[in-house]
From TrEMBL, chain A:
The keyword Transport does not apply. PANTHER family: HEAT-SHOCK PROTEIN 20 FAMILY MEMBER (PTHR11527). The keyword Kinase does not apply. This is Heat shock protein, Hsp20 family. Coiled coil: none annotated. Keywords: Stress response. Residues 29-136 form the SHSP domain. Signal peptide: none annotated.
Automatic annotation (TrEMBL), chain B:
Keywords: Stress response. PANTHER family: HEAT-SHOCK PROTEIN 20 FAMILY MEMBER. The lineage of its organism: Bacteria, Pseudomonadati, Thermodesulfobacteriota, Desulfovibrionia, Desulfovibrionales. The keyword RNA-binding does not apply. Residues 6-117 form the SHSP domain. InterPro entries: A-crystallin/Hsp20_dom (IPR002068), HSP20-like_chaperone (IPR008978), Small_HSP (IPR031107). SUPFAM superfamilies: HSP20-like chaperones. The keyword Glycoprotein does not apply. Belongs to the small heat shock protein (HSP20) family. This is Heat shock protein, Hsp20 family.
């Protein structure tokens, strides 16, 4: 059986390209809707996605994981009262993160600490890099 | 590119200032800041809020896409005399600081009684 490593090497390139396109698309509309900033880290075991969502309680955030996408959706309600200054954006927001590698959906963890949501997504066992023993 | 590990980048946090009937509310976005990392000082008329984020980026593996970093926040406001200093209340929740600045009793609109002499 031959294991094709090409797809694994391509993942960072495709991933980054998807993100650049996405960022460019969003840049125009960033003023209108809330734009939660996102960091994505990749290791051999999985992905870690950090999202800045201050002032939004975890109950108001909807996290959906499809086969290849992580969708972060939510809404920040605008404050009521006489506004002297408004710098924070409010309203609904959505970020979609595309992952080309199959992930283990049953073991996804999400924790919200001080307004930063960290989602840990382990890669599916089949995709993790594996050490091959050399027989002599 | 050398990274200075001693001091983090300082950023002005996004703030909403609103007035409600009972007083002013200052709502600040301080993601990553917990109660230990937050300091609020009132000196004469100036209210200074300082916060350090405890966000630690994942160091194993590579950063595919990074849009934010751990920063420290600082902002100063000048309070007017209407604010009742003794009753200022600060609530920090989910990275959002809600500073309640009540108006002093004397400043609230009051109806003045008319006595007929």
């Amino acid at each position: 059986m031959v294991i094709d490593f090409n797809s694994l090497y391509d993942v960072p390139k495709n991933f980054e390209r998807l993100f650049d396109e996405f960022a460019r698309m969003q840049a125009g509309g960033a003023r209108r809707t809330q734009y939660p900033l996102v960091n994505v880290y990749e290791s051999d075991n999985g992905y870690v996605v950090d999202v800045i969502v201050p002032g939004v309680t975890p109950e108001d955030i909807e996290l959906t994981l499809t086969e290849s996408n992580l969708i972060i959706k939510g809404e920040r309600k605008a404050s009521s009262g006489r506004m002297f200054r408004q710098e924070r954006s409010s309203g609904s927001f959505q970020r979609i993160i595309n992952m080309n590698v199959p992930v283990d959906r049953d073991n996804v963890e999400a924790r919200s600490v001080n307004g930063i949501l960290r989602v840990s997504i382990p890669k599916a066992e089949a995709v993790k890099p594996r050490r091959i023993a050399i027989q002599s | 590119m050398q990274k200075d590990t001693e001091t983090t980048r300082q950023v002005v946090p996004a703030t909403d200032i609103l007035e409600m009937d009972d007083g002013f509310h200052i709502l600040m976005d301080l993601p990553g800041v917990g109660a230990e990392g937050l300091a609020i000082d009132l000196e004469e008329n100036e209210l200074t809020i300082r916060g350090t984020s405890t966000y630690a980026p994942v160091d194993k593996g590579n950063a595919m896409h990074v849009e934010f970093d751990a920063v420290s926040y600082a902002r100063t406001f000048t309070l007017s005399d209407i604010v009742d200093r003794e009753r200022i209340k600060a609530t920090l929740r989910d990275g959002q600081l809600d500073l309640f600045l009540p108006k002093a009793e004397a400043a609230k609109p009051r109806r003045i009684e008319i006595r007929t002499a």
